[in-house]
C-alpha cells in the first residue's frame, strides 16, 4: 500500500512500494484479458478527472481504469484553462471536495501543482502528468511492460532518448528504473540533456550510435515542435538523423531488445514507420498496461482512504 | 537625559569607543557623552547588563509597498520591521505602483516617510517605469536629495541604454545600484539552474546570467566613471567577475543578503514558494563561495533584500508565485548566528558591513557613538536566542524561508530620531546567566 493518500510521483516511493503496485497491476492486467473485465472495488468512490492539458490516451486510460473498478466518474477537460495558476486550480478542487469527490486525477502544465494540492486538500490527488516534473503512471506502465518482457529489471540497460530536459516521462522513469536496479542511459542533444542528470545515477550520451548495441530497451520521447523555435534544435530532420530509431539502427540493436515510446509518436522523427510497427516495438502493450497500472494506483489509494477513515 | 549604563559598546566608526561603558543622551536626541562610569544626576537610567550597544544599521536594499502595494507593506509596517531588526536607515526601492520615476510620486512618498520612526531614503528609478528605455529625471531627483538610482528587480537589459544612463548619472556623482541579471539567460527561470531545477522540473536561472551582467556593468563603470553597487552577487562566477573588474579599477561595490550565505537550492522544501527568491538560492558550492568572499572581506555590505509578498499571493504553485522574502527582522540575527558565532567574521567586521560601509557608499549620515552626534543606536542581547515565528513577525507579510529557525541574539531596543523603542523587554532575571 502507498504510505500516503496521494500518488504524486515515483521519487518518494520505496522499492517495496513500487513492486507492490506493479504486482497488483499485473493482476489487473490478467483481469483485462478476461471476458468480464469489470470489477466493483471502487464502487463507493467518486473520481474526478481534471485535464487542464491536452490528452486523449491518458484520459481514456484513467477513465477506463476507473469504470472497470466501478467508480463514479466525472470529467473536466479544459485546454483553455491550461494557463490556470495554482490558486485557481486549488479553488476548483476545494469546490469538488465539498461535492464529495474522493479522488482527483489531474494533468496540468505546472510542475508542482500536485504538491500544492496535496498539501491543501483532503481529496486524494493522482498525478496524470504535471509540467516537466513527473508522470508517474507512465513510468509504472513502462516498467510493467519491461517486467513482462524481461521479468527482472535488475542489471537491464535502458536508453531514454530525446528531449530529456522537458520530459516528465523521463524523470519518473529514471526514478522507477533506479529503484528496480536497471542501468539508465540518457541520450540526446546537449541543449536538451543537462549534466545534472548524472546525479540521478544516469549515464549521459550525446551520440546514440555508440551505445545503441548495449541497450536492452529504448524509450524514445516525443519531441515538441516548439523546441525548434526556442533554439534547442535545428530541425526535426536533423534530430531524426542523430537520434531517430530506424531500420538501420534496429539492425544494430540486441536481438532481444525492445522499442518503447510513451506516445503519441511523431512518425519519421523519434521512430520511423518501420520502427513503430516492427517486431521489437511494444508500444501497444504499453497502452494496455496503462489501464492496468492506473487500476492498481486507484485501488491502492482507495484502500489507504478506507484504512485512514 | 537618558543614561544607558553598563553596556558593551562597539562603535565601528573610526576611533569609536570600544568596551564596557555608558552613553548619555541629551533630550534633543544628541549624544551628550560616551565613556566609562558617567555620572548624570536625575537622568533616566537604562541598565545594560553588558548587552551590546552599537550604531543603528543601514539597509541598502529593501522593498516596501507604497505607493500601490500597501497590502504587502506600508511605510509604517516596514519601519516597524526595520526597527525590530535594528535598522535605523533603510533605502527603499522604486518598484512600486506607480514606479518612483517622477517627482510627483517621490513627493507623495516623501510625505509618507516623514511619519516613520526610522530614516527612510528613497532610491529613484534609473529609467522610466523601470523599463530600461528612457532615462529618469536625474537632475530633478538629485536636486531634492536623491543620491541613489536603480531599476531594482527589473535590471536594465540594453547595454547601450546602460552606458548612456551611466554617463548621465556620473555627472551628478549618483550611485547606480544593479541586480546583476541577464534576462535572456535567466529567461523564464524560477530557481537556480542545476540539479534541483532538473529534479523539480522547473526552468532554471543559470549562474552565468549573473556573471555576464557583472562583466557588462563593470565594463561600463570603467568606461563612464559611474559608481555601481551590486545587490547580491550569489555565484562563484559572479564573484570572480566582480573581483576581476574591481581589481582593474572599476568603481564597484557589492552587498549580500543572508539568504545567500545560509541557504542553497538543496534547502528548497519541494515547491514551497517562500523559497522562491530573485536571485534564486544557488548551489551549495556557490553558498561556500559567498561565505568565503565574506570571510576574505570582499563584500561591502550586508543588506536585507526585504521583499514582502502577501500570503495570498504566495499560496500558489512555485512557477506562479511572486519572488522574494521578508528579512529586515532577521538580517542581523542570521548574520550573527551564521557568520559571527562560527567565527567566519568578527562582530566588528559585521558592524562595518551593517553600519559603516553602507552609509559611506550610499551617502547616508554617519552615526558614530560619540559626543555631539545624533543618538542612533541599537541594544542587542547576544546571549539571548529567539525563534522566527509567524505570529511575532512585524512586517505586514509573512513570506520567509526562515520560519521556525532558532537564532542567536535579540534586538532589545533601538534609539533613533530621538525616540526610544523597547522591542524585546525582559525581566532582570533573564540576565542571571551572563552577568
Order of SSEs of chain A: HEHEHEHEHEHEEEHHHEHH
**Helical percentage of chain A:** 40-55%
What is the straight-line distance between the termini of chain A?
A: 15 Å
Major sheet of chain A: 5 strands, parallel
CATH superfamily caption of the largest domain in chain B: Metal-dependent hydrolases
Protein traits:
heterodimer, A: 309 residues, alpha/beta, Rossmann fold, five-stranded parallel β-sheet, four-stranded parallel β-sheet, 11 helices, 15% strand, globular, B: 435 residues, Urease, subunit C, domain 1, TIM Barrel, 2 domains, eight-stranded mixed β-sheet, six-stranded parallel β-sheet, 13 helices, 19 strands, 29% helix
Topology:
The complex is a heterodimer of chains A (309) and B (435).
Chain A: H1 15-31, E1 46-51, H2 57-68, E2 72-77, H3 86-98, E3 103-108, H4 113-120, E4 124-130, H5 136-150, E5 157-161, H6 168-179, E6 183-187, E7 203-205, E8 217-220, H7 226-229, H8 236-243, H9 247-250, E9 258-260, H10 273-277, H11 283-308
Parallel strand pairs in A: 1-2, 1-3, 3-4, 5-6, 5-8, 6-7, 8-9
Chain B: E1 2-10, E2 18-25, E3 31-35, E4 44-47, E5 52-55, E6 57-62, H1 75-84, E7 87-92, H2 103-113, E8 119-122, E9 124-125, H3 138-143, E10 148-150, H4 159-171, E11 175-178, H5 183-186, E12 191-192, H6 195-200, E13 204-205, H7 208-224, E14 227-231, H8 236-246, E15 252-256, H9 259-262, H10 284-295, E16 301-302, H11 311-314, H12 331-340, H13 347-362, E17 377-387, E18 406-416, E19 419-422
Parallel strand pairs in B: 1-4, 1-5, 6-7, 7-8, 9-10, 10-11, 11-14, 12-13, 14-15, 15-16
Antiparallel strand pairs in B: 1-2, 2-3, 5-17, 17-18, 18-19
Helix pairs in contact in B: 4-7, 7-8
Amino acid at each position: 500500500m502507498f504510505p500516503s493518500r496521494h500518488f504524486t510521483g515515483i521519487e518518494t516511493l520505496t522499492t517495496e512500494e513500487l513492486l507492490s503496485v506493479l504486482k497488483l497491476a499485473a493482476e489487473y492486467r490478467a483481469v483485462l484479458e478476461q471476458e468480464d473485465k469489470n470489477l466493483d472495488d471502487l464502487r463507493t468512490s467518486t473520481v474526478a478527472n481534471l485535464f487542464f492539458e491536452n490528452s486523449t490516451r491518458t484520459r481514456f486510460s484513467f477513465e477506463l481504469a476507473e469504470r472497470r473498478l466501478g467508480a463514479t466518474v466525472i470529467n473536466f477537460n479544459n485546454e483553455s484553462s491550461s494557463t490556470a495558476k495554482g490558486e485557481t486550480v486549488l479553488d476548483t478542487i476545494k469546490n469538488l471536495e465539498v461535492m464529495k469527490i474522493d479522488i482527483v486525477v489531474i494533468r496540468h502544465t505546472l510542475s508542482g501543482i500536485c504538491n500544492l494540492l496535496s498539501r491543501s486538500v483532503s481529496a486524494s490527488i493522482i498525478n496524470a502528468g504535471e509540467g516537466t516534473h513527473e508522470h508517474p503512471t507512465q513510468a509504472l506502465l513502462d516498467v510493467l511492460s519491461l517486467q513482462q518482457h524481461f521479468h527482472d529489471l535488475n542489471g537491464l540497460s535502458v536508453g531514454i532518448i530525446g528531449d530529456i530536459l522537458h520530459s516528465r516521462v523521463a524523470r519518473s522513469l529514471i526514478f522507477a528504473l533506479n529503484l528496480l536496479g536497471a542501468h539508465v542511459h540518457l541520450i540526446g542533444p546537449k541543449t536538451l540533456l543537462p549534466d545534472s542528470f548524472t546525479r540521478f545515477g544516469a549515464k549521459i550520451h550525446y551520440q546514440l550510435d555508440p551505445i545503441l548495441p548495449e541497450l536492452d530497451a529504448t524509450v524514445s520521447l516525443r519531441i515538441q515542435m516548439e523546441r525548434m523555435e526556442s533554439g534547442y534544435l535545428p530541425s526535426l530532420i536533423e534530430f531524426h538523423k542523430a537520434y531517430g530509431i530506424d531500420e538501420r539502427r534496429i539492425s544494430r540493436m540486441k536481438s532481444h531488445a525492445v522499442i518503447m515510446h510513451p506516445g503519441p509518436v511523431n512518425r519519421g522523427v523519434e521512430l520511423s514507420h518501420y520502427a513503430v510497427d516492427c517486431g521489437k516495438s511494444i508500444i501497444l502493450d504499453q497502452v494496455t498496461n496503462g489501464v492496468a497500472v492506473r487500476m492498481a494506483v486507484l485501488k491502492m489509494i482507495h484502500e489507504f482512504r478506507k484504512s485512514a477513515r | 537625559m537618558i543614561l544607558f549604563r553598563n553596556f558593551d559598546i562597539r562603535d565601528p566608526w573610526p576611533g569609536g569607543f570600544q568596551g564596557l561603558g555608558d552613553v548619555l543622551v541629551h533630550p534633543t536626541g544628541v549624544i551628550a557623552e560616551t565613556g566609562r562610569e558617567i555620572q548624570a544626576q536625575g537622568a533616566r537610567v537604562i541598565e545594560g547588563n553588558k548587552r551590546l550597544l552599537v550604531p543603528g544599521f543601514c539597509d541598502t536594499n529593501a522593498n516596501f509597498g507604497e505607493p500601490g502595494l500597501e497590502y504587502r507593506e506600508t511605510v509604517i509596517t516596514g519601519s516597524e520591521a526595520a526597527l525590530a531588526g535594528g535598522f535605523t536607515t533603510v533605502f527603499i526601492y522604486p518598484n512600486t505602483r506607480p514606479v518612483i520615476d517622477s517627482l510627483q510620486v517621490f513627493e507623495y512618498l516623501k510625505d509618507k516617510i516623514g511619519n516613520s520612526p526610522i530614516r527612510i531614503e528613497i532610491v529613484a528609478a534609473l529609467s522610466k517605469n523601470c523599463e530600461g528605455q528612457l532615462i529618469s529625471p536625474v537632475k530633478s531627483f538629485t536636486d531634492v536629495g536623491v543620491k541613489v538610482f536603480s531599476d531594482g528587480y527589473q535590471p536594465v537589459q540594453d547595454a547601450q541604454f546602460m552606458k548612456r544612463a551611466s554617463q548621465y548619472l556620473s555627472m551628478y556623482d549618483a550611485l547606480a545600484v544593479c541586480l546583476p541579471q541577464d534576462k535572456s539567460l535567466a529567461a523564464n527561470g524560477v530557481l537556480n539552474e542545476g540539479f534541483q531545477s532538473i529534479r523539480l522540473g522547473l526552468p532554471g536561472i543559470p549562474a552565468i546570467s549573473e556573471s555576464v551582467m557583472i562583466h557588462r556593468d563593470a565594463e561600463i563603470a570603467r568606461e563612464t566613471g559611474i559608481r555601481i553597487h551590486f545587490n547580491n552577487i550569489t555565484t562563484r562566477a559572479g564573484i570572480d567577475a566582480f573581483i576581476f573588474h574591481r581589481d582593474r579599477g572599476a568603481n564597484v561595490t557589492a552587498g549580500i543578503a543572508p539568504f545567500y550565505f545560509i541557504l542553497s537550492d538543496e534547502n528548497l522544501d519541494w515547491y514551497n514558494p517562500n523559497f522562491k527568491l530573485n536571485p534564486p538560492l544557488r548551489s551549495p558550492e556557490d553558498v561556500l563561495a559567498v561565505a568565503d568572499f565574506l570571510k576574505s572581506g570582499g563584500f561591502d555590505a550586508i543588506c536585507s533584500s526585504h521583499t514582502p509578498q502577501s500570503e495570498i499571493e504566495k499560496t500558489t504553485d512555485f512557477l506562479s508565485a511572486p519572488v522574494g522574502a521578508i528579512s529586515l527582522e532577521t538580517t542581523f540575527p542570521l548574520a550573527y548566528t551564521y557568520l559571527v558565532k562560527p567565527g567566519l567574521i568578527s562582530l566588528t567586521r559585521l558592524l562595518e558591513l551593517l553600519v559603516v560601509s553602507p552609509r559611506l557608499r550610499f551617502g547616508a549620515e554617519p552615526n558614530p557613538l560619540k559626543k555631539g552626534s545624533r543618538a542612533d543606536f541599537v541594544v542587542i542581547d547576544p546571549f539571548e536566542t529567539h525563534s522566527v515565528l509567524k505570529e511575532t513577525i512585524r512586517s505586514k507579510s509573512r513570506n520567509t524561508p526562515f520560519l521556525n529557525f532558532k537564532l542567536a541574539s535579540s534586538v532589545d531596543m533601538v534609539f533613533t530620531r530621538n525616540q526610544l523603542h523597547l522591542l524585546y523587554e525582559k525581566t532582570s532575571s533573564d540576565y542571571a546567566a551572563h552577568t
